[in-house]
Amino acid sequence: MAGALGGAAVFPRGPLGTQAYALSAHGTKSADTPVPHTPPLKKYVDPLPRPMTAVPDPSVYPGADYYEITMRQGSWRFHRDLGPATVWGYWAENPHDPRKAIGMGYLGPTLSVTKDHPTVVKYRNELPTTHLFQFVIDAIRNGDPQLTPIAPPPYESKPPFPPNINVWNVVHQHGGFTPPQSDGMPLQSFSPDGFHAESYFTLDPSRVKPNEAIYGYTNHDRSCLLWYHDHAMGMTSVNVYAGLAGLYVIRDPADERLGLPRGEFEVPLVLQDRTFHRDGSLAYTMTQRQGEDTPVVNGKAYPFLAVEPRRYRLRILNASNERFWRLRFDVPRDVLPQPTLPFWLIGTDGGFRAPLQMLNFLISPAERYDLIVDFSQMPMGTNVTLTNYNAPVHYPDGDGPEISEIMQFQVTKPLSGGADRTTPPKRLRLPTVAPIEPKPHTRRREWVVYQHQLFGTMTFNAVPFMEPSQDFIKAGSTEIWEYINPNHDAHPMHVHLVNFQVLNRQPIDAAAYQADYDRWIYGGRKPEDRPVLENYLTGPPIPPDPDEARSAKDTVKVYPEQVTRIIIQEFSPPTGTIASIPGSGTEFPATYVHHCHILEHEDDDLMRPWTIIDQDDHGSGEHGGGHGHGH
Questions:
Q1: Where does the Plastocyanin-like domain start and stop, copy by copy (predicted)?
Q2: In the structure, what pLDDT confidence band is assigned to residue 446 with cuts at 50, 70 and 90?
Q3: What is the DSSP letter of 542?
Q4: Interacting residues of 493 by C-beta distance below 8 A, sequence separation 6+
Q5: Which pLDDT band, with edges at 50, 70 and 90, does 337 fall under?
Q6: Closest C-alpha to 345, from 425, 407, 259, 421
Q7: Which residues contact 427 (CB under 8 A, 6 or more apart)?
């Protein structure tokens, strides 16, 4: 579902006269079909919105914060020069005033929680039963070969959603330490009219209606920025594009001693790209090209933020469907000796890391970067522009619309409080991440990004998502996962439940590996004939990028024509009861998923289940996420 017909990398012919391609762009319309383009917009005229924070109700489940969050269709204006758009969003019930739900129509309110204090959420689906982008749903249902998952041999293709379902949803807490029944995996989806996917599950079923589900979250994480978003089977991409995403902040009271910017000086930035029709409505163009043409931050196109001359903490989430961003802070040439403002990286997906001074960084979909940016040396009236450069939508060889400017920080507010009393970044004493050292016997598990035909479906290890789990991991064990990417596009891979560290990357002979892997697939997949990775390595291991090193991650950039290795220290899901709710802890076997976080790739089958088994279990099981189905 991901773009125009450019950028193919043609590999040698496979064993059966087939052609193997490294390509992640699919188009569904002919070249002469007009692609919508956003009308010209004046930049930096709309102030940056800040998502409201949901208010918990501690009385429903003793010892836990409780929220009710409803998915609804509404209206949102993305720019002053655009009319209102129909959008989807999350709304939180206000326990102090039920008539005033908390939200803004697009995206969702922030859930701000305390480390190790559990959260219980009831999710309610009140969306329409016809999709906002129904043409995409229809194309998938009608078997469009460039949108509908096509299984590689010898598997049979299965439709991703039932023939009578145009809208269904499920909420995934991205990056959380969560039992599988509350994880929000695709086959746990439920529709506005109460249809349930095969692994639908809810805690406390006596308290829910058919269009609702209750999930429990442990919040047993380091302080960090997570997020929640739609994860529905077969339509995650269009559901998130319509607006179904929000921030989930885990706070540790001990962080208050660190001297970090707080309150109005801690600013979340949800980065997305969107295209708009002339009337302001959302245009989904990723059936025709890669990515969209306009930057949107916290729901506004080209916004500005008025700032004081002091340090700010910027918590950045790339919530784009497909786009990688390479970000820097540009300043006028007469302000600094160099044209960019340096900043400090203090955290990534899973929380704090040792401070690192940087000039720019590459962020893929679903990654989070925690920055300290110091505006104190900027003269009053200075405009600092957040820009994007050298980052095609499908990094590094995409051909989607280029976006060079994103938002502006305008140093126009006088310094409040007399002085900036936060700790200078070079003196910060942050919790660090101890390196995970692999041992000689550490289990290695390969995940091959495989595409068996031009513009076709990508899978892991040439196995469709809907096939039962084939990967069983002992509880408490450590593993190295090797993502083998023989194609020309990078993929952001997200593993549910765990944090990991990036070990290294290593170049491979991609054409030879792809050809031999094709030969193995079409030759019957005999285990003894499977290509051995070591035979295709073409250079020494490459250390992690500096911003990844010694960082806790849940999403990793899997660069093209390389193997990317991550190490997971311990596969141990939460087994304790949450908020005294029966059945809320993990039971073995426990199945989770991992997938590409280019959402169009995820929908088109670049996703697989994996299963944690008890130390004494040698078992097998199917994937899915509900009791009785792999749990």
A1: 473-612
A2: very high
A3: B
A4: 447, 483, 555, 556, 558, 564, 594, 595, 596, 597
A5: confident
A6: 425
A7: none
DSSP symbol at 410: E
Q: Which two tokens stand for residue 168?
A: 């269904």
Cα-flanking dihedrals φ and ψ of residue 246, to 5°? -160, 165
What is the pLDDT of the chain when averaged over all its residues? 92
**Residues 6+ away with beta carbon under 8 Å from 559:** 485, 490, 505
SS3 string, 425-460, reads HHHCCCCCCCCCCCCCCCEEEEEEEEECCCCCCEEE
The two tokens of residue 69 are: 């969050």
User: What value does the mean pLDDT take over residues 392-420?
Assistant: 94
The distance in angstroms from the start CA to the end CA of the chain is: 32
- Distance CA(159)–CA(130), nearest Å, equals 18
For residue 92, what are the CA distances in angstroms to 110, 246, 315, 362, 377?
A: 9, 11, 22, 33, 40
Residue 630: the pLDDT is 27
The one-letter amino acid code at 247 reads: L
Nearest alpha carbon to residue 389 among 409, 400, 405, 401: 405
Pair of tokens at residue 537: 């390595």
